[in-house]
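User: Structure tokens for this complex, please. No commentary.
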Amino acid sequence: MKHIVVKSRDYQEVNQEIRSTKDKNIVLSEVFGQRYLGSSLKDRELTIEGTAGNALGCFLDGGIITVHGNAQDATGDTMNDGKIVIHGSCGDGTGLAMRGGAIYIRDSSGYRSGIHMKAYEDKQPLLIIGERAGSFLGEYQAGGTIIVLGRNQAGKSPVGYFCGTGMHGGTIYLRCDTLPVSLPPQVAVRDADEADMQVLGGLLEEYCSLFAFDKTELLASHFFVLQPNSATPYKMLYTHV
Amino acid sequence: MAINYLYPDFEVQRNESRCITCRVCERQCANLVHHYDAETGRMTSDESLCVNCHRCVSLCPTRALKIVKTDHVFKENANWRGEVIQDIYRQAETGGVLLASMGTPKPYPVYWDKMLINASQVTNPSIDPLREPMETTTFLGKKSTTIRRDEQGKLITDTTPQLKLAIPIMFSAMSYGSISYNAHKSLALAAEQLGTFYNTGEGGLHEDFYRHGKNTIVQVASGRFGVHPGYLNAGAAIEIKMGQGAKPGIGGHLPGSKIGQDISKTRMIPLHSDAISPAPHHDIYSIEDLRQLVYALKEATNYTKPVIVKVAAVHNISAIASGIARSGADIIAIDGFRGGTGAAPARIRDNVGIPIELALASVDERLRAEGIRNQVSLVVGGSIRSSADVIKAIALGADAIYIATSALIALGCHLCRTCHSGKCNWGIATQNPELVKRLNPEIGSEHLVNLLTAWNHEIKEMMGGMGINSIEALKGNRLMLRGIGLCDAELRILGISHAGA
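Assistant:
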């Protein structure tokens, strides 16, 4: 195991050290917002103590990143595979255009989380947010799954405005009793049924064990399922010159 | 059913005395214009389906066919022209956004045609490129502003990553999806042979083409299609696409109907679902955010690749370019508003943005004034049609040129401007396997190599004429240009004098 004390060191230096070390497990302590930590990390584990900066685990390619603290913007930007676990909250743009792997956030995530998330064959990305997400959650979502558990929200909608605008693939599950306001026309909403709860049970397994949440209790609540009305929302938009 | 107000734009003229009813035209037309009438034993045509792509004309063995513009007219009206009226009919019938392809056909000024190139007479001898060495090799990337020496006094020559071009011309971004596999292969082979680069566009990189990586620029756009560490490291440089000249300010939609097996695999998205590139990158709302992506890409490739930021030429382009130069980007690519597209809303293509000549002149001027011109290279595109356009662009301050429409024409494109239909009879802008195989990538690449080899020789001839033997010495050398028929404001922006002055 490699232990790197980060403190006020420059991110380029720290990332270079991560890239050049052969250890499978790397621990970064006293992290103060350094950017791009774990960028395109493959088959290695990174543990971060402190605050991870912007674009944590961008282009992640199979590595596992655990943050004991909060992360800032663009966590898991365009990640291809792997896992990011945040024992805290994330800033804006979490999981932007992610194509594979999982991001587990214990608390909340900011604006534009899961925007343009996609999926491809066995790559089925998963973003789980424990408490609430800001506006524009899952905008242009093209695939994958986003779950917002709404813990400590007293059943109120755990997302901001414009959830799922331009959505044309994938699924959003919201654990709440009231629907978010201003849902766009591309989104079809229904109550979760037995089959959905089965799917959710599977998806929440690892998340709940990581954060020691009671899965049965979470699943005992009401969930909404948001899916796109069409995979080709722009089909009828054009006429040809 | 409502009456169809649209009269066909073209007439298919068949010289009956030449037609041998071989039915080649019928087999070649994906738009289904031609039919054989068994009863009369003659060919017939439905010109309402004709896009004037010349496929039938070119393949007719007896030259029996030609396509002419219809002389059917509306009552003459300088304001309400026929095309204006027809567009209203189309939209009134469908409620749709008018979709068009390739660069704008509208008669905007082409400043390349209003600038003349200098030559030496008497006092500064011209150079013969057949006799003397003439340098067109170009390096793109940050240039050092200071000379550094080691302890022995030797020059330290390490630089940030550079792209080395044997000729100052590259093939600009066209995605696999907007153009065919064989078109991409033609570009890749030609780039390799010419010592230059082609660009994946935002459609990802087909697995067969990773082997051409050292001549490939991989693009990252707002849709992030097919972007993963292997892709980023496959190319020689990474281009962040912020905008495109033909459609500044909007994104792109590759319709689900075009997302077949191979495209889906390359873009890493589901079959038959729309591939939507949002108008903005949702993580870039400022120059600081742009810097974040620039460095994310540099981190992901361990600082081994130059990063290009491509933007459309718009009103405040010089201020934008100044920001990009400070974002850590190595190269700025600017795409002028006459640039091509596989599909764009016609109103945007024809009305948004500014000409590349003016954008280039003002960006080069601004970066020089701010003392940051060396921090970035400038690549310009958006309808560069000949070696003369290349020379003029370099003299206005470009380091290199992007071409795409010219390259497609070399591959056989006849500029019928219906790429968006996906029925390109020349096998270029289509995913239909029957049509794609009409383009032979070996012949295609040979044509591209021929074109750029010819241009490069012409460039050398013109450089020699000016008494310049290195492309470096032409860069930003505006004394080599004079305006013709331009007003004071145009001359001021271009930074050139009028012919005769």
